[in-house]
Write a structure and sequence with these properties.
It is a single chain. By secondary structure, this protein is mostly helical. The chain starts with 7 loop residues before the first helix and ends with a helix.
């Protein structure tokens, strides 16, 4: 199928202007609020140019105010709103540009913007829930590493000096665990800078490896097989696929273009490659359900609902229901994951710190036992 639906200047985005670069302009909350406000004004009957001028005056952030002013000037000069937003690919992705273009073509821009706002709000809520579930273990691991580092650099050397000065221990070897902890502490002290350098080099190597398509594909496959986390990520990807494809089709975007755009939004290369196959099969005249089934990625429930949607002509609404169901599953999975991770992290932290403390006090316990005899 031809790519005529895609904006010509979006297939290869033109170089962006400086107003695209401030970090604040890339915040999803700012964009979601703008889309919601614009949709509300258009539904109230306010002309597009006046709505953009109103939102420009209300905007307190200079960078985003400049963007809105340029959008208003583009529409005022006779250009389309979709052409204007296509000038800012850092702010308006391909999904947004094509939905706006479809809304303009169908004369339902306000409805499309409302769908976009709802879509972004739901996506943001799901993303924040998943991030909240992952923040706790990261914080605990960071605190554990800091505690261990402090113990190794400041506490262990003092115990080592004490043991070297005790006459009771000069002829008796220290316990194996104590010698191990003291050895690790000595290594950390003497090679601290080298260890930090090696750690930085490891992160740099991982970052370079992540740019490799083959390595990224392998990593996405591994992630999906991780217990608990893999299932959660798969549900998030399927929910994003269903929500994105459903809202694109409901907004009037042709199916092939919708599949191609959705491919770039699912967030997992395994699912994205499966959608490449689906796109080619649908382009050759197949239904959507059959290639989805052959990918062996989508669960039977998703395939069944997609098939019912195709047969009844209600594919967008069925995709929305799939997204709703999987987002609820994500909520439950996040709750289960959090309830498992919290005590697990506490136990691991206690074991790690407790092992170091026990190792340091083992010689003292041995001395006390000898004195008792």
């Amino acid at each position: 199928m031809a790519d005529s639906f895609m904006p010509a200047n979006f297939a290869t985005p033109r170089s962006s202007t400086p107003v695209n670069h401030p970090r604040i302009l890339r915040q999803r909350d700012t964009m979601t609020l703008f889309i919601r406000q614009l949709a509300t004004l258009l539904e109230a009957g306010v002309p597009l140019v006046r709505a953009l001028d109103t939102l420009t005056l209300q905007q307190k952030r200079q960078g985003f105010r400049t963007v809105l002013s340029r959008l208003a000037n583009t529409v005022r000069a006779g250009g389309s709103f979709s052409d204007g937003v296509a000038e800012f690919p850092r702010l308006f992705d391909r999904l947004s540009v094509n939905m706006i273009r479809a809304g303009e073509a169908g004369g339902v821009l306000e409805k499309v913007l409302t769908r976009m706002a709802v879509f972004r709000e739901k996506s943001d809520r799901m993303r924040k829930r998943v991030q909240a579930a992952l923040i706790y273990p990261v914080v605990v691991i960071t605190v554990a590493l800091i505690i261990v580092l402090l113990l190794m650099c400041f506490v262990v050397p003092k115990f080592q000096a004490i043991y070297q000065s005790l006459p009771q221990l000069k002829s008796v070897p220290l316990p194996v665990l104590t010698r191990l902890i003291i050895g690790v502490g000595h290594t950390v002290q003497t090679h601290f800078i080298a260890a930090i350098g090696l750690l930085g080099m490891a992160f740099f190597a991982i970052a370079l490896l992540g740019r490799s398509e083959r390595a990224a594909n392998a990593w996405d496959k591994i992630v999906l097989r991780i217990p608990l986390f893999g299932e959660l990520i798969a549900k998030v990807s399927i929910a994003r696929f269903s929500r994105t494809l459903g809202i694109l089709i409901a907004s009037g975007v042709p199916l092939l273009d919708a599949i191609r755009i959705t491919r770039n939004c699912v967030g997992n290369r395994v699912l994205a490659q499966a959608l490449d196959t689906v796109h080619d099969r649908v382009r050759d005249g197949d239904t959507l359900t059959t290639p989805l089934e052959h990918t062996a990625v989508f669960p039977p429930m998703v395939l069944s609902m997609v098939q019912i949607g195709e047969e009844t002509g209600r594919l967008p609404s069925m995709l929305e229901r799939i997204a709703d169901a999987y987002e609820e599953d994500v909520d439950r999975a996040v709750g289960v994951l959090t309830s498992i991770i919290e005590p697990l992290m506490i136990v691991l932290l206690a074991i790690l710190v407790g092992t170091i403390v026990i190792a340091l006090f083992l010689p003292i316990i041995g001395i006390i036992e000898n004195l008792g005899r």
